[in-house]
Amino acid sequence: MPKNASPGHFSVLYFASAASFTRKSSEEVPAPLTVADLYIHLEGKYPGIREKILTSSLLTINLQYVDTEEDGPDTPSKMINEGDEIAIIPPSRKNMGGRITDLEATIAIADFMLLVIAG
Question: Which residues does 9 contact at the CB level (< 8 Å), separation at least 6?
Answer without folding.
Answer: 28, 29, 30, 31, 82
